[in-house]
Specification:
The chain is mostly helical and 120 residues long. 80% of the residues lie in helices and 0% in strands. It is globular, with a radius of gyration of 15 Å. The relative contact order is 0.17.
């Protein structure tokens, strides 16, 4: 998820987006924090879905670098982000006590505020 969040933020920055970049930037910061914490406290392991999601994220990076189109990179990162949720959902289903509900609630609020900030 770290790579995906960084790709999304970089893509929005390249497009000079002044609204959605705040959610993406917060997600990138959150992903950096989670990555650091997971090194020390994480469960570890490599499932097939983890590897598939990592490959999709790298394809998104390669796609962006090949096309030089930040919009396409954003779409690729959204697809990768969606795919990256699959291992998290599986882990949450199998080990619900390992998750903190308030962390997810903050994401809901962040997304809601970003939607309210969109100018139509």
């Amino acid at each position: 998820m770290l790579f995906i969040a960084v790709i999304t933020t970089a893509s929005l920055f390249a497009q000079h987006d002044t609204v959605a970049i705040w959610l993406a930037g917060a997600s990138a910061l959150q992903a950096i924090l989670l990555f650091g914490l997971s090194i020390k406290y994480g469960m570890g392991g490599w499932a097939k879905t983890d590897i598939a999601c990592l490959i999709i994220a790298f394809i998104g990076i390669a796609f962006w670098q090949t096309t030089k189109n930040p919009s396409l990179a954003l779409y690729a990162s959204i697809l990768s982000d969606f795919t990256g949720m699959i291992p998290a959902l599986i882990k949450t289903y199998k080990y619900p006590k390992t998750e903190v509900w308030s962390f997810f609630l903050l994401d809901v609020f962040a997304a809601a505020f970003s939607l309210m900030a969109i100018k139509i």
